[in-house]
Amino acid sequence: PVHICFDDHDTITGDEITEILAFLQSDESGIPSGTNELVPVDEKKRRRTISNRESAKRSRLKKKKRFEELTEEVNRLNQRNEELKNRLANVVSCGNFISSENNRLKTESVCLEIRLLELYRFLVAIQSPISTRVNYITELEI
């Protein structure tokens, strides 16, 4: 931008008027149409500004895309976590059932061993002389 200060004692030359008019008639890019000295510097600055804006836009888009990818991954991992939790709950439930069943079978096994021992004693008592049979029957009654 051109800054012009007017004092009561200053006069404006024709070149300065031309420069002011060129500045006022410049296009949107900010390049004065009548000055050749400022064109390369202003053009470089304009290109650099445009390039920076495009780079920033690409950066924002890349960041947005990465955020969306991470959000999708978080959702996928949360879903997988829920599936694994459900599987773990099923395995624990099955483990508890198997443990309970195992305890029941152990108890049943002990009961059957006791019953087998009783049957063995009964068979021995039947095959033994009468005094042993009487002792066995007396033991059962007690």
UniProtKB/TrEMBL annotation:
Principal location listed in the UniProt entry: nucleus
BZIP domain ranges (all copies): 42-91
Coiled coil regions in record: 53-94
InterPro entries associated with the record: bZIP, bZIP_sf
Superkingdom of origin organism: Eukaryota
A single GO BP: positive regulation of DNA-templated transcription
Keywords noted in UniProt: Coiled coil, DNA-binding, Nucleus, Transcription, Transcription regulation
Keyword DNA-binding: yes
GO cellular component: nucleus
GO MF annotation: an example: transcription cis-regulatory region binding
Localization terms from the record: Nucleus
Protein name: BZIP domain-containing protein
